[in-house]
Structures are given as structure tokens and as C-alpha cells.
Specification:
Structural class of chain A: alpha+beta
Largest sheet of chain B: 2 strands, antiparallel
CATH superfamily of chain B: Transmembrane di-heme cytochromes, Chain C
CATH topology of chain A: Alpha-Beta Plaits
Strand order of the largest sheet of chain A: 9-2-11-10
Number of helices of chain B: 9
Distance between the termini of chain A: 66 Å
Largest sheet of chain A: 4 strands, mixed
Bound molecules: protoporphyrin IX containing FE, iron/sulfur cluster
Largest interface: A-B, 45 and 48 residues
Radius of gyration of chain B: 19 Å
Helix content of chain A: 25-40%
Strand content of chain B: under 5%
Oligomer: heterodimer
CATH class of chain B: Mainly Alpha
Structural class of chain B: mainly alpha
Shape of chain A: elongated
CATH architecture of chain B: Up-down Bundle
Helix content of chain B: 55-70%
Order of helices and strands of chain B: EHHHHHHHEHH
Number of domains of chain A: 1
Strand content of chain A: 15-25%
Number of domains of chain B: 1
Radius of gyration of chain A: 27 Å
Amino acid sequence: MALQSLDITRRSASPTASPQARKTIEIAKLIDVSTCIGCKACQVACSEWNDIREEVGHNIGVYDNPTDLSADAWTVMRFAEEESNGKLEWLIRKDGCMHCADPGCLKACPSPGAIIQYSNGIVDFHQENCIGCGYCISGCPFNVPRISQQDNKAYKCTMCSDRVAVGMEPACVKTCPTGAIQFGSKEDMKQLAASRVADLKTRGYAGAGLYDPQGVGGTHVMYVLHHADKPQQYSGLPKDPQISPAVQLWKGWLKPLATVGIAAAGLFGFFHYITVGPNHADDEEDDTAANVGRKEKQEDKA
Amino acid sequence: MKPQLIRRYSAAERINHWIVAVCFILLALSGLAFFYPAFFWLTGVFGTPQLARIVHPFVGVLMSVAFARQFFRYWHHNLLTRDDIQWMKSVKTVMQGHEVGDTGKYNGGQKGMFWLMCACMAVLLASGIIAWRPYFAGHFPIPLIRIALLAHAWAATILIAGIIVHVYAAFWVQGTIRAMVEGVVSHAWAKKHHPRWYREVTGKQK
Ligand code: HEM
Ligand code: SF4
Ligand code: SF4
């Protein structure tokens, strides 16, 4: 989304800091997996508000439809059937961007301002700056960004930044019939989650907990899980998501190393030339003065 | 050709070399633009950032084809011998402007550079294809694309540093650039820097 009236704290590929003086509160969306009924109203609301329509697909034998995130489907419900203690559990998770505090997509993006983070925590893509390289896909630990086949630009959930900017909740939150998606300050959402987790524990879900993974600095979309000890059961939600070490090496260590290496090659040439001088073949015999001068220089050094 | 000049590269070889060189410069500039945020403006070599992103891989393929032609022209001139190892060990002496060993068409440093370039080109081509959107990247798993992007940036860095040394060496050893521009070198140049090759092409013993 391009039009916005939120403060930007971080931009992709921008070496100097964005304005930092104003402080706004951090927001969060809390998805309570234990009260979600899988109705997909949020998917529809997302599609409505954002004017995106995924093509009608095929039934693949489970409820997942569309079967994956796409440039036209920024959130999808994933249905997992898990058997534990001889009981079948239907674990339904609303998948989409987690709005990481330390977003791998933003870290990887080479195009200035194509990915931005607002001071309230929302991570947004500004498609007009996107070059379609797909680095964000490699940077994301949650496999979220998708490149549109129409315009070769990356898209994902915006947390309805346009709505949030004018004091409204995201469309999915507004539409959820069971109140499984809540929106507010991150602090409030953590408190709400704590009471939900306590309730789940009294009902026998010993592993219940909040999913706010610290490996990415926490997220601005959090889950209440009945099995927070086994997040992978929820259609592969990563247990300890982190920006991949390959991406860290690429975007972290390699830059200073490359700078030193390339600069060293250039400086070597320059200083070699002004100290040793050119290597002539033709004037070996005749240009004695130059040779004498060169010899003296070498003796000086020795 | 004047009698005192020796032919080192044919017109076809020179054209081939400069196709690779021009492609390389365009690739290095646009690539560094993707790599260093502060140099993003270098995407301007292809007009706009989006165009640079789209065109870079195609230029890469063109360069790979041209480089492959060079590989098949030159690989057998670049097999390492014991003399070359000796040359590499004495690189300090060489850098003072003294010759080491009875050098043939290429010296140990040139041969080392040849194989370094081959290795980097191979890595750049393979990793570049794996990371190429929208055509190929979708067919590879994301963890592999991450490794490819890392390898691509590494190989590009090594190659760029290597090419700086390559260009400097050609400039430092006066009379060398002429070999790749006009195709010829002087007798003195050949006798001094590539004595064995000099004897081979002229049939002279001294
Ligand atoms: C051999 C064929 C090559 C192919 C197929 C290729 C392909 C690619 C692709 C697909 C990208 C991602 C950006 C984009 O989609 O345009 C890229 C980035 C890049 N390329 Fe190449 N390339 C090749 C050769 C080269 C060469 C010769 C250099 C420079 C010496 C180079 C330097 C770079 C750099 C520095 C990046 C940015 C990497 C980063 O952001 O860390 N590439 N290349
Ligand atoms: S989940 Fe992925 S796309 Fe969303 S903010 Fe985190 S890294 Fe970026
Ligand atoms: S595809 Fe667009 S948003 Fe993603 S990393 Fe590349 S420029 Fe940034």
C-alpha cells in the first residue's frame, strides 16, 4: 500500500535511519486458534477490503481453499488433522504475514523503500518501489511474500495499514464472528492472551501458550495455541523462527568483507603502481636512467 | 602487420574478449547496486531499477556463452606446470618487475586467474539461474535459493576483485593492453614476459 499516514521507522535498503523522534504505541493482532471455527469470513473480508480476488481453485480433499497464499490471497486458513492421545484434533490456523519486529523480508530487500516498517509495528510493502527480485521471499522465515504473475511485484498482508492509520481495526478482525481475532496495543493483546492461556490450561491443555517468537524479535500477529509446545502441528508453524543464517551471512557479514576485498584489490594496484612503477619491456637496455632510479628505490626499501 | 610485431590475439578472439568484458562491467555495476543499498543508483546503467533487475540475468547468460567460447579457446594453454608453481611462489619477485622461469604463452598468475574466473563464472551462472525470477526460482526450494543468493554475491565479489587485479596487471605490464586491442605485441615484450612462447612463435632460439 502506498498511501499512508503512519510514521515509518525502517525502510528496506536505506543505510541511514528514518525519522525516530515521534513515538507511537505498538499494535498487535491476536489470533486465538482455540476459538476459531474455520469459517473463512476473515479470508473473504480481506479479499473484499483489499480488492483482491484469487481465482477459484479446485477442492483438493481438505478444507484449504485457496490452498496457498498468493499475491491475491494474503491470508488463508490452514486445516491440520492431528492425532494425539488417541484423539483427533482439527487444528485450524489463519496463515499470513506475522509482521515481525525484526522482519527478514525487509532485511533482504535491495530496493530502497519497497518494504517499510511503521512505528506501530506493521510491516508493509510499497509495490511502486518493488523490483520483483524475490529477495523478500528468501528473507522471510514464515514463507509469506508472493510475487504477482501480473506485475512481478511482491504482495502480502498489510494488516490493513490504511484502516489502522485512521483508527480502525483490520478487516479480518472486524468480521470474525467468534471474536477469535482481536486487535489492540501489543501490551493489551498479551494480557488478553494470558487470560486465554490460563483458561485453556484449566481445561486440560497443559501446553497452551502464546506464540510471539523472540527469534524475530516478537511479532505483531500473535497466536494463542492450545499446543504452544508443538507449533509445527499447526500446518508447519515454525517452532523457533529465525532469519536464516544464509541470509544473515549474505546481508550481514559479506558486505564489510566484500568492501574490504574489492577496496584492497583497487588500493593494491594503485600503491603498487606509484611505488614499483610500470613494467617496461622495450626500454630494458636503453632507458638506463629509469632503471637506475628504480634500483635506487629498491635499495632504499631494503 | 609490421615485421617487428607478433600476433597474439586474432580479431575473433578480441571481439570475444570485449563482449565478455562489457557484459561483465554491466553485470558488476547492476549487481553491486542490488548488493549495496548506497549504490542502488547504479541500477541506472540499465535505465530503471526494475529494468536492471530484469535485464541483468539475460546479460549474464550472454556473458556465460561468450566466456564458454573463451574457455574452449584457452583451457589447454592454462594447464598448470611445475614452472607455474615456481612462478606463484616467487610472486613477490615478479611484482618488483623481474621475470621468473621460462614462461610460455601464459604465466602462473595468468593461469591461476583463468581458473579462478572459470570457477566464479560457473558459480555465478548456476546460482544466478536458481535465483532468477520469474522464470526459474519458483522451481527451487527456498533454502536452496538462499544459498544461491549467498554464493552469487560471494562469487561476484571474488570475481570483481580478481578482475581488478587482471586489469591492473594488463596495465602494469606495458604493451599488454595492445595485445587485446590491436592483437599484437612487440618482440621485446614477448621475449621478456613470455620467452618460451616467443621461441615457439618465432622459431628463434634467442
Ligand atoms: C552468469 C550469469 C548470471 C546470471 C544468470 C545472474 C543472475 C542474477 C540474478 C537472477 C540476480 C538477482 C537479481 C535479478 O533478478 O536480477 C543477480 C544478482 C546479482 N548478480 Fe548476477 N547473474 C549472473 C552473472 C553475474 C556477474 C558476472 C556478476 C558480477 C561480477 C553478478 C553480480 C551480481 C550481484 C552482485 C548481484 C546482487 C546479489 C545480492 O544482492 O547480494 N552476476 N544475478
Ligand atoms: S512474516 Fe515474513 S513477510 Fe511478514 S514481516 Fe515477517 S519476514 Fe516479513
Ligand atoms: S521482490 Fe520487491 S519487495 Fe521483495 S525484496 Fe525484491 S524489491 Fe523488495
